[in-house]
Amino acid sequence: MSSPIVRMIREEIWSSKIQSIQGFRLEDIVRGLEGSLQAGLNASREERGLLLLLLKRVLEDARFLAEFRVMKASMGAEIPGDSFDKSILELVGRLEEFLALLYSGSLVVQNNRVTVYATRACEGLEKGDVALVSVEDAVLYYLRACVTLVTRPIYTYVASLKKAGTGS
Question: Which of 29, 27, 47 has the alpha carbon at shortest distance from 39?
Fold first, then answer.
């Protein structure tokens, strides 16, 4: 396993919160890999093979770290404000919210197109537009906070009860 990433994985596993990852930690990893790649230019065939195995392991470890952080974010773990990937991890919650509305039948959908209300101008939509867009476009607009999803009136009513504290 790649040592700096393994340390981050350990920290992540042992904490209930998502750990802050600073950009400089990743820069250290990149510098180490660049040094190894530079050394690999003059290495024997066998040494280059080992270097490729190392790079493969780094990618596997990084994927595990990413999956673990996304899982923790989806379970509602607190995302530190100073982590370089804060905005990315926050998208996990928005994606879950979108999917929950879609799967529950709460969204106004016609012919596999989702009704959205543009809260700001965004690629093909002007602020104030109400449009039917593909599910793929709807999720992208929603993740970019360009639109409000139009929901069925009963869902809107239930959501308002929940916000007011009178719903269960």
Answer: 47
Q: What was the pLDDT predicted at 138?
A: 95
* Cα distance between residue 115 and residue 99, in whole Å: 14
Average pLDDT, the chain: 84
Residue 1 confidence (pLDDT) above 50? no
Single-letter amino acid code for the residue at 84: F
Cβ-in-10-Å burial (0-12, 13-18, 19+) of 4 comes to: middle
| ∠ Cα 98 66 101 (to 5°) | 10
Is the distance from CB of 25 to CB of 8 less than 8 angstroms?
yes
Q: What would the pLDDT profile of 146-164 be if each residue is shown by its tens digit?
A: 999 998 887 777 777 767 7
Give the angle subtended at the CA of 85 by the CAs of 93 and 72, to the nearest 5°: 45
Q: Kindly tell me the sign of the dihedral angle through the C-alpha atoms of 77, 79, 85, 90.
A: positive
- What residues does each domain of the chain span? 3-74, 94-164
